Amino acid sequence: MSLIWLLGLVLAIAAVGYALGRTRALSSTNGDIRKLHSLPSYYGANVALKSAIPALLVLVVWLVAQPLIVSGVVSSDIPDSAIPEGSSRGLVMSEVKRVAAGLDGAVAAGTMSASYAASAQADMDDVTKRMRDAQQITPEALTPEILTAGQRFRAMVAQGKWAMTAVVLALAVAGAFWGLRESHAEFRARNTVERVTKVLLIAAASLAILTTVGIVLSLVFNTYEFFTMYPPLEFFFGTTWAPSFSGRGGSSELGIVPLLWGTFYISIVALAVAVPIGLFSAIYLSEYAGPKVRAIAKPLLEVLAGIPTIVYGLFALLTVGPLLVSIFGKDGFGWMQSGTAVMTAGIVMGIMLIPFVSSLSDDIINAVPQSLRDGSYGLGATKSETIKQVVLPAALPGIVGAILLAASRAIGETMIVVLGAGAAARLSLNPFEAMTTVTAKIVSQLTGDTDFSSPEMLVAFALGMTLFVVTLGLNIFALYIVRKYREQYE
Amino acid sequence: MYDARHTEAQVDQTETKISAKGVQVYYGDTHAIKDVDVEIADKTVTAFIGPSGCGKSTFLRCLNRMNDTIDICRVQGDILIDGEDIYDRRVDPVQLRAKVGMVFQKPNPFPKSIYDNIAYGPRIHGLAKNKADLDVIVEKSLRRGAIWNEVKDRLHAPGTGLSGGQQQRLCIARAIATEPEVLLMDEPCSALDPIATAQVEELIDELRLDYSVVIVTHSMQQAARVSQKTAFFHLGNLVEFDDTTKIFTNPEDPRTESYITGRIG
C-alpha cells in the first residue's frame, strides 16, 4: 500500500470518526444541544484529532527511523571479507541499496519475477542482465554477498512497510474508539480541542526554532572540524586568501581578513548610498507629500524591494559597471580597470536597500506623535526646523535600528557581489578595484567537486559561522535599539 | 464702527489685542465655526467654555493659524491682532506663531533635556546672542513657569522624565521663553491633578500681567477662577461673550444658563 493511500485512509477514519462522534454525542442527550457540554462539532473534532494525530505522528517517526534501522542491520551483516581493498563499509552499503533499487525496478518492469528477485543466487550475470534490461543502474561486478545483502534489504523494507501500515491503521482505529467512548454529554470536548489546538501551535513554533538550532549546530560542528585542521589564529588574522584545490591542504592560505574587509567595504558603500536617499525619501513621503503622491510613490518605491537580487546583479554587471568605467576608467580618471569593483556592487546594493531604509524610517517617523510637531509649530518653528530638531531626534533610535537591519542585509548579500564586485580577495583601499566578500567566497568554495573533509571545503562553514555571528550581533543590537525607542512615549 | 470699539475699550480700561469678525471654519464639508465675532483684550485672561465639539479649540487654533497644518481646514473672515490681519497673504504663519504662543491639552515636551526644551524657541528665533544670554532666558522662563526650583539641579535631564504636572509647566515655560504677546492654552489642566492644576492656575494669573491669555477649559470653576472675560460656544456659535462675573451670575442667553447649571452639554 503506498504512502498516499495510507494517509488517505487515516484521514478517512478521522472523518468517519468526526461524523460518528458528533452523532453519538447528540444521541446521548436525545438531540438536545443545550444539555451537551460543548457544541456537537467539538465532540466530532475530538474523535477526529484522537484518531489522526497519534497515527500520523507514528507514521512520521517510522518513516524517519526505518531506513536508519534497516541499513544499520544490513550493513552490520555484511562480512568484512566482502569489503574490497581501499573501499569502506559505507561505499559497499550504497552498492547494496543500488542493487535493491535495481531489483525493485526489474520486478516492476517484468524482466524478473518477484520470487526470482527475492531468492536468485546462482547466476550473477543473469541477474545483472535482467536488471539492465529493465534500465536499472547495476554495479560493475555484482558479488553474491552484495546480492544477498540487497535481497535482505528489500525484504526488510517490504516487511517494515507492512508493519507500518498495520500499526498506523490500528492506531487510527483505536484513537477513534477512544474518542467515541468519550462522546457523551458530560465530556468537556471543547476544552480538549482547545488544548490540542494550543499544542499544535506550540509544535509549529518549536519546529521553526528547532530548525534554526539545527542549522546553527551543523555550522558549529563543521566549523569545529575545520579548526582541528586549520589553525584558528591564521584563519582570523591571516591577510591572504589563497585556497589551493590541487594539493590537498597545507599549501592553502585561508585568512578571513581580506574577505571581511571586502564585505565591510562594500556594505559601507551600499549604506552610504541607501541611508541618505532612503531617509530623505522617507522624510518627504511622511512629512511633505500629499496623500495622492504618497499613495503612488510609496508602493513604487517598495517595488524595488521585490526585485530579485540576481536582477540587481545583472544591472550591476551590464549597466552600472560599464557606466562607472566610462567615467573612472582609462578614458576618464584612469582609476578603474574593469567594471567589477567595490563601487559597482556597493552602489547597486545601495539601490536595493533604499526601500528597506525608507519604508522602515517612514513608519518610524509616522509614529512620532503629532503633538510634538504641534508643539514645535506652536513655538514658531518652520517645517524643516521641526523635522531636523524634533521629529528626527525623536525617531533617531528607530532610524538607527532600520539602518542596522539594512546593514545586516548588505553583509549577507551574495548575488550582487558575485556579479558586480568580482572574485578577487584583496586588501585594498581603492574602491574602484575588484574585491570579494565572505558570502561570495562561500559559494565559490562549495561549487564544483565537493569533498567535505578538506579544509578548503570546511572553511565555508567557518566563514558562514563568522558571518552568522556578525549579522546576529547587528540584528540583536538593532532590536535592542528599536525596543528602547518604543518605550520613549507614554 | 471704529468709535463703538473705541468706547468699549475705554470702558474696559484696556486695549483690544485680538479682534475676530465673521469667522467661519470648515473641515471639509463640516461647518465647524459659524460667524464668530469676538474682541479679546490685552493683559486679560479670556476663557472659552462650552460642551465638547462646540468649536472652542478650533477657534483657538485659528488665532495662531495652527489649523494651517490640517489639510482639509478652511478659515474665512477676519482675525486681526494689533490691527493686522493674520490671514493676510503677507503674514508668515511661522512669525505669527512666535508672537502667539500655544500650550496644548496634553503635555508635549520634546524628547530633549529640560534646558533644550526651553532653549528650543529662543534658538530658532535667534533671541540669545550667546550661551550666557540663553542661560538667562532659560532660567527666567523656568522661574516664570513656576518650575525652576524643581528642576534647577537637573536641567540636563530629559524633559519626558518629569511628572505630568511638571511637564505641563515645562511646556508653559517653553511657550513663554519666546516672549509671545498672546498665550493660547487649550485645556492646559485636563491631564493634571488638583495640586498641579492649582499651580498652573496661579501661573496663569501671574502671566496676565504681561500677556493676553486665552484659555479653553471644560471646568467652569476654572473659568470662573482664572478669567476676567468668558465666551460661551455652542454648536459652532458664539452664544455669549461678557465679563466672567456676569456670565456666571447673570447670563443673558438661556443656553448659557442651562450650560453653567449643568443642564446641557
Structure characterization notes:
- The complex is a heterodimer of chains A (490) and B (265).
- With 490 residues, chain A is mainly α.
- Chain A folds into 2 domains: 3-187, no CATH class; 242-486, MetI-like fold.
- Chain A contains 17 helices and 2 strands.
- In chain A, α7 (189-229) packs across α17 and α11 crosses α12 (342-367).
- With 265 residues, chain B is of the alpha/beta class.
- Chain B has one domain (2-260): P-loop containing nucleotide triphosphate hydrolases (Rossmann fold), CATH 3.40.50.300.
- Helix content of chain B is 39%, strand content 25%.
- Chain B contains 11 helices and 10 strands.
- In chain B, α4 packs across α5 (131-144), α4 packs parallel to α7 and α5 (131-144) crosses α7.
- Chain B is globular, with a radius of gyration of 18 Å.
- Residues 1-12 of chain B have low confidence and may be disordered.
- The interface between A and B is medium-sized, with 21 and 29 residues.
